[in-house]
Design goal:
The complex is a heterodimer.
Chain A (H helix, E strand, L loop, with lengths): L3 H19 L22 E8 L6 H20 L7 E8 L4 H13 L6 E3 L3 H14 L3 E3 L12 E3 L4 H14 L4 E7 L2 H17 L2 E8 L7 H10 L3 E5 L4 H11 L9 E3 L4 H7 L1 H4 L3 E4 L8 H14 L7 H20 L4 H6 L5 E4 L2 E6 L4 E3 L3 E5 L5 E6 L21
Parallel strand pairs in A: 1-2, 1-3, 3-4, 4-5, 6-7, 6-8, 8-9, 9-10
Antiparallel strand pairs in A: 10-14, 11-12, 12-13, 14-15
Helix pairs in contact in A: 2-12, 3-4, 5-6
Chain B lengths: L1 H30 L7 H18 L6 H23 L8 H23 L10 H4 L1 E3 L5 E3 H23 L1 H11 L1 H6 L4 H23 L9 H16 L4 H21 L2 H18 L14
Antiparallel strand pairs in B: 1-2
Helix pairs in contact in B: 1-6, 1-9, 1-10, 1-11, 2-3, 2-4, 2-9, 2-10, 3-9, 6-7, 7-9, 10-11, 11-12
Chain lengths: ~425, ~300
Amino acid sequence: MYSLRGRRTGALLIAVALALTACGSKTGENESSSSGAVADTSGDTVKVGLLNSLSGTMAISEVTVRDSIKLAVEEINASGGVLGKKLEPISEDGASDWPTFAEKAEKLIKEDRVAAVFGCWTSASRKAVKPVFEENKALLFYPVQYEGLEQSPYIFYTGATTNQQIVPGLDYLKSQGKTSVYLVGSDYVFPRTANKIIKAYAAANGMTILGEDYAPLGSTEFGTIVNKVKASKASAVFNTLNGDSNVAFFKEYKSAGLTAATMPVVSVSIAEEEVKSIGTQYLADQLTAWNYYQTTPGAANEKFVKAYKAKYGADKPTSDPMEAAYVSVYLWKAMVEKAGSFEVAKVKAASDGVTFEAPEGTVTIDGATQHIYKTARIGKVGGDGLITEVWNSGSPVKPDPYLKGYAWATGLS
Amino acid sequence: MTVIVSQLFTGVSIGAVLLLIALGLSLTFGQMGVINMAHGEFIMAGAYTVYVLQKVITGAGWSLLIALPIAFAVAGAMGVLLEFLLIRRLYARPLDTLLVTWGVSLILQQAARDIFGAPNVQTRAPDALTGNIRITDDLVLSNNRLFILALAALAVVALTVVLRFTSLGRRIRAVVQNRDLAAVSGIPTGRVDRLTFFIGSGLAGVAGVALTLLGPIGPTMGTNVIIDAFLVVVAGGIGHLKGSVIVAFALGTLQSLIEYSTTVSVAKVLVFVAIVAFLQWRPQGLFTLRTRSMA
């Protein structure tokens, strides 16, 4: 029973088990449908779909987005609903698995016949559901900053595109005289596309990129990357790491003796929730680029923060993607009311120029790109875990997902 | 030159982390032959011990040193419980042990999620461990890495002493080498199994304390490291402490040196290729344990 063969079999079994865990994703083929599903708006209520990962690695972030969508739906219902009809939220779990997202999107559209779907976080999940929404001519509201270079006729993007987050982040670094930059990111579509844009910007703006490193998603060993960053003597780091990797990166960064004073890090995926889990000890005074912070001034934000904390707990911070998700429901409501109909084609036609007094400031839909005008804000992490603004773009920036307005960006798309 | 030295240091410290997470496993998997998929969750339990302890005694101060014995006890107790309730009924059935402990691992992860919440939690590192020792401007040795190195060395020495010079160690080795003969000689094999499991799981708890200095503390932190831990034990030669030590440091150094001139992913691939090639050459691992019960 303690034979060598037994142990070898054991080792083999482990290998098999690990391999199974590694490729545990399902392959879900979507049957193509010819006709678009029509939302059911005949009753007293109208169904809306919430499509977020409630389990798996992305759940941490996406549950907060789901919560803020629910908050917006409740507020709208309390004030009379949309076109006199109450909203009935149907929540589906994308399970951090992209084919599952596509299946659940199909279910929401065809079986539940929802009027619109709010959700998705990663670009991979958005790309997985995009054909489903396009085939069925249904609406998706996507609330997270992303890498741009996309414009689906059936998706409204309420998070920032690159010229509302990354480009202002670079402008800020340049204005501070930080012109030699090291790029660190997770190894997937967003950081790679973002860095392509950053390199094009740098070439045209007299900045030098001293190095570029990618860590696999979930990677928690940053000794070597931090050594490389340190040896490069860059004046700043542009960080597009996602998730757990940030924790390991900043712990390593600090113990290597690098600080915000010597070599600041600009992060585009660290919001209030992430600050909490990384620890202010490691993040003090580091920079972030977003469009909204919990500390953003204004009555609309005070109301949002108060309502969120009242519903979900006083220790829960609000963040940019949560705010963008909250706003997306109100924007949809305004579009439907302007159109006087829940019909997708009419709602889309009515979208241009629809505005909303959002917690981040006034946002306006740009009908041509289906993105929204947003104010860019650079923030600094404080000792209390909140982020305070150190710079903003003054007025909402026109969305430009293909960066057509930037000469240096030709040839990127 | 400085770069090579600092990369060597990084490599050695990666090796120390690998060694710490694999050490407990080299006992339970290596010596006893139990495939414990929940080993990673014992590491997680050690890390959460630090978190809970810092809630009780505010301030980082000595919390890490106090946490070490407590985490050892907590993870060890969990290990004994697992051994007593499930594993001892499955000693002759490796496949069942694998599946059962995998299930236990999922249950423990979910338990952590329910108790501490799904997001990662943060612990404060003592100020003494967030700094570094500056040798030149370019060459700094971070204190947390040095601490982990010392901790790994201490754990190896302690384990070696226990296995080689104590009566418990003799019994463990006797049971591993020939269970039936050990039983006939009056060694209570059941108790020895439980103690071995206690020490092995306890070491996982110690590794968890060390990991709070480096990475995220969350419900899935155990699954992130369990693969590497098995890799070290298998390549080192099942049942051999010395093999695990050598392989851990070799892999760490290899990883960091390749990574510096390429990328993380390429380095990972090359290290895996190296391991596969090595196991082709020596399927039994670096060292082999001679037992009388050859199948």
